[in-house]
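Hey, weird one. I pasted the Toxin-antitoxin system, toxin component sequence into the form twice and got a warning about non-standard characters only the second time. First submission, copied straight from the form history:
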Amino acid sequence: MRFEFSDSADKHGVPRSDAEYAVMHHVDYEILQPRRAGEQSFMFVGLPHPQALRYLEVGVAVDGRGRRTIFHVMEVTDLYRHLVPPADH
């Protein structure tokens, strides 16, 4: 699966490969309000690599043609911590 990245995705300095891994191996997600007409937005929570101990939250917008754009990446915040499995809190 291929992802594009908006400039805002790089704001917190998380490597793009970590963001992609977290989405592809997410533990849970939430459907968000669309950012633009014709898009669907999601917030995925996942580890950036198999040995990681801290989860990432990764925002992804999908347009009508299936283009996937990562627009937000950072260490998981309290807003999405409920998506982290209970054993990993």
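That's the output from the first submission. The warning seems to come from a hidden character in my clipboard, not from the data itself. The first helix runs from residue 16 to 24.
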